[in-house]
Amino acid sequence: MSDLLIExxxxxxxxxxxxxxxxxPKKERVLADMMRERMYxxxxxxxxxxxxxxxxxxxxxxxICINSLKRLVRLANDMALFQxxxxxxxxxxxxxxxxxxxxxxxxxxxxxxxxNRKS
Length: 119
Fold this sequence. Notes:
Helix content: over 70%
Number of helices: 4
Structural class: mainly alpha
């Protein structure tokens, strides 16, 4: 069940993120490429973990990949690269939505890791 859930959540996040990455300034191409690479690497790991017997190492790598992407999104927000006016904390709506999606994925991955440790 959580296999399908993480796949759906990540697909929704990718649909949202692709437009936001494409809107980043051209001078920040390296940051955009790093975000894109982490996002697609996580997608690949989600597919791999569905077919492996020993899933824990792949889930750990997936967790690292999602956390890395979350840090890059925070960096882009701190550099004021997202369009839209910031709120009183200096965060944009894009940051809140995107990081919320990543946090939710992280929770699902954590639950999957706990489930695999028990079995």
